[in-house]
Predict the structure.
Amino acid sequence: MRTRKQALGDRNIVGAKIEERRKAIGMKQKDLLAQLQVNGIELNASGLSKLEGQIRNVTDIELKAFSKILGVSVDELLGLK
């Protein structure tokens, strides 16, 4: 497992939750990217890495897809639950 080279950003609050949940269910980034594509979300590995690192903004449509794929509510990804 590679370590993050850049410090965490402040562009979103869900990136860390997405990464945490992805790892908890044993999903690799490439698998998440494939599931996003099936759900109509075009995101590359760099974009996902930046999103998880809180360097890239997340759209509402992406947030909905992450929630569905990772099996958690949007509220959980937003830290409201």
Notes: The chain has a mean pLDDT of 92. Residues 11 and 57 are 5 Å apart (CA to CA). The chain is about 55% helix and 0% strand.
